[in-house]
Design brief:
The chain is of the alpha+beta class. It has helices at about 5-30, 45-75, 95-105, 110, 145-155, 185-190, and strands at about 130-140, 160-165, 170-180, 195-205. Helix 1 (about 5-30) packs antiparallel against helix 2 (about 45-75).
C-alpha cells in the first residue's frame, strides 16, 4: 500500500493557506508590489481550520507510511513473486519528513515573520526641534504580526519618522515624526500603499 502522493502535497497547500496572509507582505516587499499584501486577509478567519486540516492530513499520511512499513516487515513470502522495489523519492519516508518540516515552517511563519522586516525599520535621528508630532492611525485589514511589520517598513521609509508602533490586534499605528519633514497625509499614503486602509487619523501631540 503506497502513501498517496496527494497527501503530502495537500498538507503543504493547507499549511501555506493558513499563513498566506502573513507570507504575502514579505513576498510583496521582495517583489516591490506592496499593495497586493492585503489581498489574502480574508483567509485569516479560516486559519484554525487550515491548521487542523494540515495536522489531519499529515497524521493520516504518517499512519499510512508507518502501517505500510509494518506490513512489509511482517509479510511472509509464500511464492516466487517479484516485489515492487521501484519506489519513487516522493513515496519515501524521507520525503514525508521533509514535507512535515516544511509544513511546520509554514504554519509557524507568523511567529518569526518579523525577521524579514527588521532592516527596513531605520528611524530618523534628528536634533532638538519643536516640530515633533505624534499621530494615531486606525487601520483596516491587518491580521497578523507580518502585517504590522509591513506597515512599519513602509512608514519608516519616509523622512522624519522618529518612531512607529503598530498593532494588528488594536488595528492602529502610533507614529512619532518631524512635521517639518513629513505630513499626516504622506504617512497615510504610505500605509495605504500596503493595501491596508487608514479609516481614521488624529493628532495626539
Amino acid at each position: 500500500m503506497k502513501t498517496p502522493i496527494s497527501l503530502p502535497n495537500l498538507s503543504i497547500l493547507t499549511a501555506l493557506a493558513s499563513s498566506l496572509c502573513c507570507i504575502m507582505p514579505v513576498l510583496a516587499i521582495l517583489a516591490g508590489t506592496t499593495g497586493i499584501a492585503s489581498n489574502f486577509a480574508w483567509l485569516d478567519p479560516a486559519r484554525p481550520y487550515f491548521i487542523g486540516s494540515t495536522a489531519l492530513v499529515l497524521g493520516f499520511a504518517w499512519y499510512q507510511k508507518l502501517n505500510q512499513k509494518k506490513q512489509l516487515n511482517t509479510k511472509q513470502p509464500d511464492c516466487n513473486c517479484k516485489t515492487n522495489d521501484n519506489i519513487t523519492f516522493i513515496q519515501t519516508k524521507t520525503f514525508l519528513t521533509m514535507v512535515t518540516f516544511l509544513s511546520i515552517l509554514l504554519l509557524t511563519f507568523p511567529s518569526y515573520s518579523h525577521i524579514f522586516f527588521k532592516k527596513a525599520e531605520n528611524y530618523a535621528v534628528t536634533g532638538q526641534t519643536s516640530n515633533f508630532s505624534q499621530a494615531e492611525f486606525t487601520i483596516k485589514g491587518m491580521t497578523c504580526t507580518g502585517c504590522e511589520h509591513h506597515v512599519k517598513s513602509e512608514i519608516s521609509k519616509l523622512k522624519g519618522i522618529l518612531d512607529v508602533k503598530v498593532s494588528y490586534e488594536k488595528s492602529n499605528a502610533f507614529v512619532k515624526f518631524d512635521s517639518s519633514k513629513t505630513t499626516i497625509a504622506e504617512i497615510e499614503k504610505a500605509i495605504n500603499s500596503t493595501g491596508y486602509k487608514v479609516v481614521k487619523n488624529k493628532i495626539i501631540s
